[in-house]
Write a structure and sequence with these properties.
The chain has helices spanning about 1-10, 15-35, 40-45, 65-80, 85-135, 140, 145-190, 190-195, 200-210, 215-235, 240-245, 250-275, 275-300, 305-350, 410-415, 440-445, 460-465, 470-480, 485-490, 510-520, 540-550, 585-595, 595-605; strands at about 370-380, 385-395, 395-400, 425-430, 430, 445-450, 525-530, 555-560, 570-575, 580-585. The protein has about 600 residues and is an alpha/beta fold. The protein folds into 2 domains: about 10-350, Up-down Bundle (ABC transporter transmembrane region fold), CATH 1.20.1560; about 370-605, Rossmann fold, CATH 3.40.50.300. Strands 6-7-8-3-9-10 form a 6-stranded mixed β-sheet, with helices on both faces. A hairpin with a 2-residue loop joins β4 and β5 (about 430). α3 crosses α4 (about 65-80) and α18 (about 470-480) packs across α20. The radius of gyration is 37 Å and the shape is elongated. Its main location: membrane. It is a multi-pass membrane protein. InterPro entries: AAA+_ATPase, ABC1_TM_dom, ABC1_TM_sf, ABC_transporter-like_ATP-bd, ABC_transporter-like_CS, P-loop_NTPase, Type_1_exporter. One of its GO terms (molecular function) is ATP binding.
């Protein structure tokens, strides 16, 4: 129930729809009871035509309300029909039809208004989840598979709508239907109604025992759904590799194993859930059977109840079954919804350790430089950087080189504050980056990575990602700097061409030049290039390198380089090994020292 309260907070903006739903549900519940009670005068007209009432009855207090209402309806029927019994029958049938029509009209209106609340909550939860997903730090998702996150924002949120939010319809309607029905039943026969109450708690206990394990079973189903969605996502992302290595059968078997487990878990869950309806119905019919025996005895033997009242009473007793079954089904929904809500709230309530401090500085300019002062950082247990110092002055190009795992990309991740340092501090113009708002910090930086991250959109929109209001002239100018304009104009629709999922309609060099154009258009004072040319062929590399050199003019650049030929003109080259600086200087200085850097250059020259 704790999860239910947390989810219910999302219903606050739609409370007017909830209020209208409650209002019409109250009317529905009232008319549901009255529509069955109205059968009594109809049955009296059919089976007791001799019991006509010619004198207008007098109200004698609440204790005799039932007799007063029955006599009043009989009096109206007698007045209307005179000696023609068929006229009276038509009148009573019209009354019953009108009551049933109103009951169903109010039911529709109640469902009409709750639809806006349910779908509104669904929309808001998804929006908040997506906002949280893009806000959470990168390392949060390194521990979770993408498919599992997708499952949470799709099927788990939908499960909340089907389970928790469907309960909102039942909270008022079903209990009130039962309440009004029982009131009318008491009005017809107190003795018979008290007899019914002996059996209701017994039936409730049996039904509640069935649903105890539903949350655990539902949790397994939802986790397994996340598992096979992850497999699908990975397969689509790496389809070329899968086909190239003839690994289709391996991935198929992995997926098949996951869906097999999902099949077993789902069967177990649904079979337990499906047990609720037949069990509830059988117990209800059992109560009806006992009622027929006990009530029949009151009509035939004791003669303390008339036949028309008893038939209407049986209709009312059956009228309790539907809401009672709905309430028992809703209790299963809560247990299933609990598992889904737990997974959704795990994302929504996740703490973001990388957040702005109070009164964070909004920095829009860059004046002196970047300083990494005695920083230490670890992803898990072992430090990747330990006691690391580096200074990048304004206007300088500083290149980081070294073997894989030496900590080059980690420096870029820390400067952009994708991760926070464990010790030490990073400063921009003498201000600790933790004191600068994340938005303004990243606004000072442009990033070009080894993997060109493009989106399933037009060329124009991909370039304009960091500057949404950019004009077409600005976009074209940025593309020209990135040596991308020529190939863009050869595309079917030029700048309005959709480049497909992850830009798969383009070559590697074309994708990288679009990434550079995006960074150029943003026009940041600090540029971070993370192995921007390492995945390219020689011709593409020349075009991209030329674009990078144009882009880096008059900017402060931090370059993480794999191909050393691309950074020979850097103001300072920093050689890293196991998270520490082992050499630093210009290309010429480091070549003269004949240490690690010279060996790396010679090895690349030899392999080239």
């Amino acid at each position: 129930m704790n999860y239910f309260k947390k989810i219910l907070r999302f219903a606050a903006p739609y409370r007017r729809y909830g209020a209208l739903n409650i209002f019409f549900n109250i009317l529905y519940a009232l008319f549901s009871a009255l529509s069955f009670a109205a059968l009594i005068p109809m049955l009296d007209v059919l089976f007791k035509p001799e019991q006509k009432v010619y004198a207008k009855p007098i109200y004698q207090g609440f204790g005799k309300l039932k007799d007063y209402l029955q006599d009043y309806i009989n009096y109206q029927v007698t007045e209307y029909s005179g000696d023609d019994d068929m006229k009276g029958l038509v009148l009573v049938i019209s009354l019953v039809l009108a009551l049933f029509l109103l009951k169903n009209l109010f039911n529709y209106l109640a469902m009409y208004f709750i639809t806006f609340l349910r779908n509104g909550v669904l929309k808001d939860i998804r929006n908040k989840m997506y906002h949280k997903i893009v806000d959470l730090p990168i390392f949060f998702f390194s521990e979770k598979r993408k498919g599992d996150v997708i499952a949470r924002i799709t099927s788990d949120v939908l499960e909340i709508q089907h389970s928790f939010l469907s309960i909102l319809e039942l909270i008022v309607r079903e209990p009130l239907t039962i309440f009004f029905t029982i009131l009318v039943m008491f009005g017809i026969s107190t003795k018979l109604t008290l007899f019914v109450f002996i059996f209701i708690p017994i039936a409730g206990m049996i039904i509640s025992r069935i649903g105890k394990s539903l949350k655990r079973k539902s949790d397994r189903v939802q986790k397994e759904q996340g598992e096979f969605l992850s497999i699908v996502e990975e397969t689509l992302g790496g389809l070329r590799v899968v086909k190239a290595f003839n690994a289709e059968s391996k991935f198929y078997n992995t997926f098949k194993s996951s869906t097999e487990r999902f099949f077993k878990f789902s069967n177990s869950l649904l079979n337990r859930q499906n047990l609720a309806s037949p069990t509830g119905e059988f117990l209800g019919i059992l109560v009806i059977g006992v009622l027929l025996w006990f009530g029949g005895k009151m009509v035939l033997v004791d003669q303390t109840l008339d036949a028309s009242s008893f038939i209407a009473y049986m209709g009312l007793a059956y009228n309790i079954l539907t809401p009672a079954k709905a309430i028992s089904k809703a209790s299963y929904g809560v247990k299933k919804g609990n598992a889904a809500a737990e997974r959704v709230l795990e994302i929504l309530e996740a703490e973001n350790p990388i957040k702005d401090v109070e009164n964070a500085v909004d920095k829009s300019d860059f004046n002196t430089g970047i300083a990494l002062k005695n920083i230490s950082f670890k992803y898990e247990d072992d430090y990747v950087l330990k006691g690391f110092d580096l200074e990048v002055k304004k206007g300088q190009t500083v290149a980081l080189v070294g073997q894989s795992g030496s900590g080059k990309s980690t420096v870029a991740n820390l400067v952009t504050r994708f991760y926070d340092v464990n010790q030490g501090e990073i400063q921009i113009d003498g201000i600790n980056i933790k004191d600068i708002s994340k938005r303004s910090l990243r606004g000072l930086m442009g990033l070009v990575t080894q993997d060109s991250i493009l989106f399933n959109d037009t060329v124009k929109n991909n370039i304009a990602l960091g500057k949404e209001q950019a004009s077409l002239d600005e976009i074209i100018a940025a593309a020209k700097v990135a040596n991308a304009h020529a190939f863009i104009m050869e595309l079917p629709h030029g700048y309005d061409t959709n480049i497909g999922d992850s830009g798969n309609k383009l070559s590697g060099g074309q994708k990288q030049r679009l990434s550079i154009a995006r960074a150029v258009l943003k026009n940041p004072p600090i540029m971070i290039l993370d192995e921007a040319t390492s995945a390219l062929d020689t011709e593409s590399e020349r075009l991209v390198q030329d674009a990078l050199e144009k882009m880096m003019r008059n900017r402060t650049s931090l370059v993480i380089a794999h191909r050393l030929s691309t950074i020979q003109n850097a103001d300072s080259i920093v050689v890293l090994s196991k998270g520490k600086i082992v050499e630093q200087g210009t290309h010429e200085e480091l070549m003269k020292s004949k240490k690690g850097y010279k060996k790396l250059v010679e090895m690349q020259s030899f392999t080239a």
